[in-house]
Amino acid sequence: MMEIEILRSGFDFLGIYGFFDGFMPDNLDWLVFLITSVILAMVIINALVISTALLTWFERRMLGRFQSRLGPNRWGPFGLLQPIADLVKLLTKEDTIPEGADKPVFTLAPIVFLVPALIVFAVIPLHGSSFLGRLNIGLIFVIAITSVNTLAIFMAGWSSLNKYAMFGAMRAVAMLVSYEIPMGISVVGVAIAAQTLGLSNVVLAQDIPFILVMPLGFLVFITAASAEMSRTPFDLIESDSELGAGYHTEYSGAKFALLQLTEFMAPVIVAALVTTLFLSGWRGYGPIPGPVWFIIKTFVVLFGFVWIRASWPRLRVDQIMSLAWKGLLPLSIVNLFVIAVEVFIFNPGEAGLSTRDLLIMTGINWSITIIALIVIFNVMGQSKLKRPEPVALPLANMYANTTVSKKATDLAEAD
Questions:
Q1: Do 105 and 35 share a domain, yes or no?
Q2: CA 383/CA 354 separation, integer angstroms
Q3: 201 and 251 housed in the same domain
Q4: 74, part of any domain
Q5: Is residue 49 part of a domain?
Q6: For 381, which of 161, 240, 404, 407 is 20 to 30 Å away at the CA?
C-alpha cells in the first residue's frame, strides 16, 4: 500500500492525555484519563450541535433557492441566527406528557435517540492520528450503535398512548429494519476490500476512493442510509392523511427539541461515514490539511442530501418496502459476492490491495453495476401504460352512443 504522510493533530485523546499527564502525579492516572475523556466528549458534543444548527440553516436556505423563494432571512445576516430563534422557541414551550402515557419510557426515548449519534461520531477518524478512530472493530461498532435508534423510535410511539404516534412508529421501525440489512451487507463489502474493520485503516486502504471501486455498494449504502434517516423520498414517519407528525406527535418543549436535534444530526453522521467509507476520508492532495479535506467531502455529501430532498417526491409505503427487499437486498448481495471473488483472486495478503488491483476492480465493478441496475429497473419498473380510449358514460350524455342526430327542437321536447 502506498505510504502517505499523515498530518498529526495534537488535539486528540493522546494529545490531551499527554498534556495533563506531564504535570499530574503518577498515582492520578485515572484522573488524567477522566479529564481527557470529559474534554473530548464536550468538544465532540458541541461540534456536532453547532454543525447541526448550521445544517438546518443551510438546508432551509438551499431549499428556498431550489423552490424560488428566500428561506430564513429575518434573524441575523442571511438568517444565520434562525437556529437560535428556533431553539429559544422550543425551550420556552410547555413540556407536556399525555395523561395515561408511560412517563419513564416517554421521557427516556429522546435520550436513547440522541446518545447513539454522539457515540458514533466519536469513532469517526477526522485525521490520521485519531485515537478512537483506530478502534479495530469500528465498522461493527457503528452498525451496532446505529441500530439502537429503532428501539428509541418504538419507545416514543408506544409510550405516547396515541394511535397515530404508534402508526408512525411502526412505519418507521418496519423501514429501519428493512433497510439495515442491505446497508450492513454493503459495509461488509467495504471491510472485505479494505481487509480490516478499523475505520482509520479503511481510509488508508483507499488509494483509489471506494466510491469508484465499488459504485454499487455506494449506491446501496447511500440509499439505505437515506431511508434510515427518514429523509425524502423515504419520509414515512409523517402522514398527510392522519395529520400527524409520526412517533413524536405528543412531544413538545425540550423533549421535542432533542428529537429534532437528533433527526437533523443524522445527515451529518451519515455524511461523515460516507466520507470515511467511500471518499477516502481525510486523504487529499496538496498542502490542504486532512481535517479540511474531510470537512469539504462531508459538505458535498450533505449538499447531495439537500438536493435530493428538493427534487424527489415522497414514495408510497409499498414502494419503499419493495425497494428494500426486491431492489437493494439483491444489489447488496451481488456487490458482496463480486468484491469477495475479486479479493480472493487478487489474494492481496497483509499488504492489502494495490493501486493496480483497485483499478482493475473499478473497471469490472462499473460494468457489473450498470448491468445490475438495468436488470433491477426492468424487474421493478412499471411497464409502459397505454392510455385507454375515453368512453362516455350513458348517464353523463345519453346521446353519446347514438348515431341519430337530434335537432334542437327534439332535445327541447325530450327535456
A1: no
A2: 44
A3: yes
A4: yes
A5: yes
A6: 240
Q: What is the DSSP letter of 248?
A: T
Q: Are residues 307 and 166 in the same domain?
A: yes
387-to-378, 384, 390, 391, 396 alpha-carbon distances in Å? 21, 10, 9, 12, 21
Looking at the fold, whether 74 and 104 belong to one and the same domain comes out as: no
Domain final residue pick, 25, 53, 78: 78
C-alpha cell at 381: 419498473
CA distance 164 to 87: 26
Residue 309 lies in a domain: yes
* Those residues with Cβ within 8 angstroms of residue 43's Cβ, 6 or more apart along the chain or in another chain: 11
CA distance 327 to 55: 30
Which cell goes with 184? 450492513
In this prediction the pTM is 0.84
Burial of 365: CB neighbours in 10 Å, binned 0-12, 13-18, 19+ = buried
Q: Phi and psi at residue 237, in whole multiples of 5°?
A: -65, -45
CB atoms within 10 A of CB 323: 22
Q: Which three cell numbers stand for residue 230?
A: 427518514
**Residues 324-353, buried b or exposed e (16+ Cβ, 10 A)?**
beebbbbbbbbbbebbeebbeeeebeeebb
How is residue 200 written as a grid cell?
482509520
Q: Write the pLDDT tens digit of every residue in 323-332.
A: 999 999 999 9
From residue 67, how far is each of 200, 297, 310 by CA, in Å? 40, 25, 8
* Same domain, yes or no: 59 and 123: no
156, 106 contact by CB (below 8 A)? yes
Phi-psi region of 250 (alpha: psi -120 to 50; beta: other; left: phi over 0): alpha
| Domain membership flag for residue 87 | no
Taking CA atoms, 346 is separated from 102, 206, 216, 353, 366, in Å, by: 56, 16, 20, 8, 18
Asked if 30 and 73 sit in the same domain, the reply is yes
Strand blocks (E) in 116-249: none
Q: 156: closest CA among 247, 258, 221?
A: 247
Distance from C-alpha of 160 to C-alpha of 351, rounded to nearest angstrom: 54
Number of independent structural domains in the chain: 3
Q: What is the per-residue pLDDT across 195-212, written as a single tens digit (0 to 9) for each?
A: 999 899 999 999 999 999
**Does residue 291 sit in the same domain as residue 199?**
yes
Banded pLDDT at 1 (limits 50, 70, 90): very low
Beta strands in 155-195 (DSSP E): none
Is the same domain home to 248 and 358? yes
Domain that holds residue 22: 1-78
Sorted by sequence, the CB contacts under 8 Å of residue 69 that are 6+ apart come out as none
- Identify residue 271 by its one-letter amino acid code: A
